[in-house]
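Field log, afternoon session.

UNIT: design team B
ACTIVITY: writing a sequence onto a fixed backbone
BACKBONE:
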């Protein structure tokens, strides 16, 4: 197996990313839920010594923010750009980028949106409430984009798994 084969195998496809969104849905999402999810992300990032910033927004309001050692103001700018993609498209920032790549283009080339305002890079995931839709976003910045995406997905899986048991 070549290096490019391994990297393609490890990179989730559009179908897998869409399945994550269908699976990771809340029954409700309160201020307390934002605090608990954000705190879980901080705990996971600290365990990995990940130099990330973490942000949770709901309906235009920032409910949680943390900047861990090694993160910088640039991470906050990336958070805002990735979150705007989720708010505009209603899908994970990594999925939006993957959809463009699957069409043989890039988000930057084909969206015609200002790259200083929007970034279809991994790390922002929609907060979706059943029977309501996308109401916000949870975002991580500081790692390579696929790792940012995976950290958010893993935290959502843990968080939602604890609430259904």
């Amino acid at each position: 197996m070549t290096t490019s084969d391994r990297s393609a195998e490890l990179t989730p496809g559009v179908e897998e990313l869409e399945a994550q969104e269908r699976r990771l849905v809340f029954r409700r999402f309160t201020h307390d839920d934002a605090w608990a999810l954000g705190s879980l992300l901080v705990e996971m990032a600290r365990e990995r010594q990940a130099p990330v910033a973490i942000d949770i927004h709901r309906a235009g309001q920032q409910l949680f923010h943390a900047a861990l050692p090694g993160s910088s103001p640039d991470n906050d700018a990336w958070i805002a750009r990735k979150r705007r993609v989720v708010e505009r498209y209603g899908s994970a920032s990594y999925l939006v980028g993957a959809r463009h790549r699957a069409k043989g283009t890039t988000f930057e080339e084909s969206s015609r949106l200002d790259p200083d305002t929007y970034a279809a890079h991994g790390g922002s995931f929609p907060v979706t409430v059943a029977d309501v839709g996308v109401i916000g976003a949870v975002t991580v910045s500081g790692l390579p984009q696929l790792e940012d995406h995976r950290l958010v997905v893993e935290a959502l899986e843990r968080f939602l798994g604890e609430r259904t048991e």
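LOG NOTE: Helices lie at 3-10, 14-23, 31-47, 73-89, 93-102, 107-111, 145-164.
NEXT ACTIVITY: expression trials, pending approval
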